[in-house]
# Entry
Amino acid sequence: MTAAPPPDPLLDSVRPVLAAVRERAPLVHCLTATVSMSLVADGLLAAGARPMMTETLAEAPIITTLADALLINLGTLSTDAMEGIPATVRVARADARPWVLDPTAIGIAPVRTPLARRLLAERPTVVRGNASEILALVGEGSGGRGADATHAAETAERAAARIAERTGGAVAVSGPVDLLVGVGRRERVARGSALLARVTGTGCLLGALTAACTAVAEDALVAARAATVWLDLAGEVAATRATGPGSFRMHLLDALDEIGR
# Structure
């Protein structure tokens, strides 16, 4: 007979949000990086949410009226997405729909960087990124190397606080120790696996999970924390089963389905 796992207070603290995602199966409209679409879609389904992905100006604003939450990820910004994103965000805001901004790889990029900064004026529910992206978002750094951070999460604490004050929402800064910042609130989560950084799209998936959690949690910081813990703990479980990054990706999807049940 297999022994029950020991209690995990961190998991217990987010379990109601995970249960609500599984019960309500929120539809998340993801304007996300093409390189990570498969993992984002499969990860949302494994978690109990539902993905939808359309980025054109002709369709994305209309499609988002059907969604429970919106993810804007600037990872592989196409011409279609560049035109469709602002209009889609405006529709989400008009309908009071929660939305997440993931300013992937901003910094030196001449198109996505000013776009990300303009989108802050639309008051995203949660901004999720690594420290280099968060610093670049407020003009305090030149960004990382592509999607890779060159700063530790704690170096972006002041920048994250400025963003939270501006948006009234939450900021999730990913790293070996994740930093979560709301207006006058700070939390850290020191969990997860190093293998999460060796699979393309895990950051994009975290943004999508965050969007799913904003659809069921009224508090932005609670939603961001739940999504962060969910992916971190799933990463830990997957790492115990994987033999390398390839098998880790497969086990991560299984673990997302298992965590908190």
User: Anything to note?
Assistant: Strands lie at 27-31, 50-52, 69-73, 99-102, 126-130, 170-174, 178-182, 185-189. The chain has ten helices and eight strands. The first helix runs from residue 9 to 24.
